């Protein structure tokens, strides 16, 4: 893997949130690469820091509580974290776009679709004429599979179904043909059939625009369908990093194993008990010392509570990593 | 939606009838009234020493003969059953005749008309200043949440909210009119008002109205300022504002174009009630500043049992608030495309 293929490089990213009493580290020393044209999945339970990773990259952390403490996010040679607000406005929406979880609330209820879609062209192509913008809007709505786009442009979000709204969100995100699309649980709020349509659409558009996607989800099924590589996050740390095939074939971290075991499968007898990971995600205010997963891990030994597991590269090109001191003996 | 509003307008009729029947009946049932008041005055005038124990005794021992009394009753319409005289009153109302004040003998409309300019002026100024102050202040407080500006203005607004308007009135009169003599003590205009130039007149009215306006409004800022602040803060945290930012919009633009528009919806819900500014007025504040407005008129006519005036104010007041409610609905439908009345 040559380094010029890296489109976005996240190094030692640490993000914290201030509450009234204290400061909580939500992302702890996270590093990963996003390659050109790839789909990178980020998977983990609620509250493990998936969305915060996305918002840190977009620099859209809720102000003033959220704050990147240290680290670099390098995009095309520039550290995003040191860009001026003005420079950031030219990247957001144009180079790095994002779609959100809740299509029901992510669109402004009082503006017509056409206005919300046209706004992007206004921001990033201020010289574009009214008609060109309209043609582009109709074009992109066609592309995301919205029937009768001319009519939809005049409608308000509440007149559209959830799936349609998510298509509009995708249209908005893709209208500038971004390099990177960050999709934060884009299908979680949709029913399964719509979910499938949206995933297919995203895959198609990715091929067409040749963009990279960061796909955030808690659904390993979606990961299997959509992604080339996966990051598994737990309590603000990346515990395992692997290609999709490797991850599903030979998970290394006990947490990943637990996640895979807790997927209902068609080939197990019906009515058999579904495996679960016992316990709860640790409260980020008092994270257990050592490995964060050890309180729920079946393979905990004394050593786990003593040292933080380091992120170990376990493949030659260092694209596969795991953070568990026992991974070697456990994979035997 | 048109059908909805037509139905709302038609519903004004039964509501209006209900309100007026109720109050009309009450005015007939409570003791005291124009005749008793007249008798008292007549007795005072004739120096009669007979003291009143009750109204009935008063009539019995009055200087007026039975036939004179009946004549008076007929004159005021008290000789007929309640519903019948209500019918007559209603017919007159439909002919835009509010009747005659029993106190002054002049048409009720005349009494009301005299107060109208004063009340409209104060009502309009209060409305205008409330919106002009509260909306920007609410926006500022939302954006500067938990900063010194926000905290200090909260304290001021709540002090104003905690002090009743008439107390605030007395305080400002004492300080600014009595000790500092910056503003006149009372009244709506100066004595030489008619000799002033056009701009002089405007200046004179403003000069007279600063202190009463402070008294009127000191408590009114809190509700709307905090409504605006909280509503905008809710919307600043809304997903669609994040979407707008993710599109590349600047924060300021996202606030103005996306969050603000949504956060005025709760404020629009009572916009229509502003129509009642025609009858604005607080009796206590008007009393303190010696302003001859609606508050004072309403209070005095109640005390003096001047029922035609009471009913006249009621007619105008209830009609205005009924229409105001519908206006609010229309405003909400205008600012929020999701609202569709019907069904």
Which terms summarize this structure?
heterodimer; A: 332 residues; alpha/beta; eight-stranded mixed β-sheet; four-stranded antiparallel β-sheet; 23% strand; B: 343 residues; mainly alpha; MetI-like fold; 2 domains
Number of helices of chain B: 16
Question: How many H/I helices of chain A?
Answer: 12
Q: Structural class of the helices, strands and pairings of chain B?
A: mainly alpha
Strand order of the largest sheet of chain A: 6-7-8-3-9-10-12-11
- Characterize the main sheet of chain B: none
Instruction: Please give the number of β-strands of chain A.
Output: 12
- Tell me about the largest β-sheet of chain A: 8 strands, mixed
Estimated structural class of chain A: alpha/beta
- Quick check: average pLDDT of chain A? 88
Q: Count structural domains of chain B.
A: 2
**Strand-residue proportion of chain A:** 15-25%
**What fold name stands as the CATH topology of the largest domain in chain B?**
MetI-like fold
* Bulk shape of chain B: globular
Helix content of chain A: 25-40%
Order of helices and strands of chain B: HHHHHHHHHHHHHHHH
The number of E-state strands of chain B comes to 0
CATH level 4 superfamily of the largest domain in chain B: MetI-like
The low-pLDDT segments of chain B are 48-60
Give the distance, in angstroms, between the N- and C-terminal Cα atoms of chain B. Answer: 9 Å
């Amino acid at each position: 893997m040559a380094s010029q293929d890296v489109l976005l490089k996240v190094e030692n990213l640490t993000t914290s949130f201030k509450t009234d009493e204290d400061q909580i580290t939500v992302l702890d020393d996270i590093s990963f690469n996003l390659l050109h044209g790839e789909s990178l999945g980020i998977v983990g339970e609620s509250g493990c820091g998936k969305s915060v990773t996305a918002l840190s990259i977009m620099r859209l952390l809720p102000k003033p509580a959220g704050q990147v403490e240290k680290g670099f996010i390098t995009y095309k040679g520039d550290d995003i974290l040191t860009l001026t607000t003005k420079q950031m406005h030219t990247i957001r929406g144009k180079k790095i776009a994002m779609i959100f979880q809740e299509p029901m609330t992510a669109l402004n209820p009082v503006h017509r679709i056409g206005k919300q879609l046209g706004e992007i062209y206004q921001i990033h192509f201020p010289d574009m004429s009214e008609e060109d913008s309209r043609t582009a809007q109709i074009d992109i709505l066609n592309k995301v599979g919205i029937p009768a786009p001319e009519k939809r442009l005049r409608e308000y979000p509440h007149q559209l179904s959830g799936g349609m709204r998510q298509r509009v969100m995708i249209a908005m995100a893709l209208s500038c043909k971004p390099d990177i699309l960050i999709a934060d649980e884009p299908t979680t709020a949709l029913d399964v059939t719509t979910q499938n349509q949206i995933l297919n659409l995203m895959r198609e558009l990715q091929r067409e625009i040749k963009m990279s996607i960061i796909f955030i989800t808690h659904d390993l099924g979606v990961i299997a369908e959509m992604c080339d590589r996966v990051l598994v996050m737990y309590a603000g740390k990346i515990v395992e990093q692997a290609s999709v095939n490797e991850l599903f074939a030979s998970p290394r971290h006990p947490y990943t194993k637990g996640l895979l075991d807790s997927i209902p499968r068609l080939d197990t007898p019906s009515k058999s008990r579904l495996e679960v990971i016992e316990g709860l995600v640790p409260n980020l205010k008092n994270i257990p010392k050592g490995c964060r997963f050890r309180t729920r891990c079946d393979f905990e030994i004394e050593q786990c509570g003593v040292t933080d597991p380091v992120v170990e590269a376990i493949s030659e090109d260092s694209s596969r990593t795991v953070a568990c001191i026992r991974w070697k003996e456990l994979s035997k | 939606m048109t059908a909805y509003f037509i139905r709302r307008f038609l519903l004004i009729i039964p509501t209006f009838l209900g309100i007026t029947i109720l109050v009309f009946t009450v005015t007939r049932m409570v003791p005291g009234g124009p005749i008793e008041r007249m008798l008292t005055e007549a007795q005072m005038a004739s120096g009669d020493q007979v003291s009143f124990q009750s109204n009935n005794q008063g009539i019995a021992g009055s200087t007026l003969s039975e036939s004179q009394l009946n004549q008076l009753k007929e004159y005021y319409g008290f000789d007929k059953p309640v519903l019948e005289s209500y019918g007559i009153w209603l017919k007159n109302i439909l002919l835009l005749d509010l009747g005659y004040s029993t106190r002054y003998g002049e048409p009720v409309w005349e009494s009301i008309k005299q107060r109208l300019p004063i009340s409209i002026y104060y009502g309009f100024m209060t409305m205008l200043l409330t919106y002009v102050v509260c909306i920007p202040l609410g926006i500022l407080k939302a954006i500067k949440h938990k900063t010194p500006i926000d905290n200090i203005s909260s304290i001021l607004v709540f002090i104003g909210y905690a002090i009743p308007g008439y107390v605030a009135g007395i305080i400002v009169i004492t300080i600014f009119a009595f000790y500092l003599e910056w503003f006149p003590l009372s009244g709506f205009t100066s004595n030489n008002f008619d000799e002033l130039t056009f701009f002089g007149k405007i200046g004179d009215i403003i000069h007279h109205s600063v202190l009463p306006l402070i008294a009127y409004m000191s408590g009114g800022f809190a509700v709307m300022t905090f409504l605006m602040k909280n509503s905008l803060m809710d919307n600043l945290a809304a997903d669609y504002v994040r979407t707008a930012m993710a599109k590349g919009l600047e924060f300021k633009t996202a606030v103005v174009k996306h969050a603000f528009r949504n956060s005025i919806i709760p404020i629009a819900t009572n916009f229509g009630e502003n129509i009642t500014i025609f009858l604005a007025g607080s009796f206590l504040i008007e009393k303190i500043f010696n302003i001859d407005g609606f508050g004072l008129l309403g209070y005095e006519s109640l005390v003096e049992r001047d029922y035609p005036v009471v009913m006249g104010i009621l007619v105008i007041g209830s009609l205005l608030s009924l229409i105001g409610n519908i206006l609010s609905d229309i405003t909400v439908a205008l600012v929020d495309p999701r609202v569709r009345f019907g069904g």
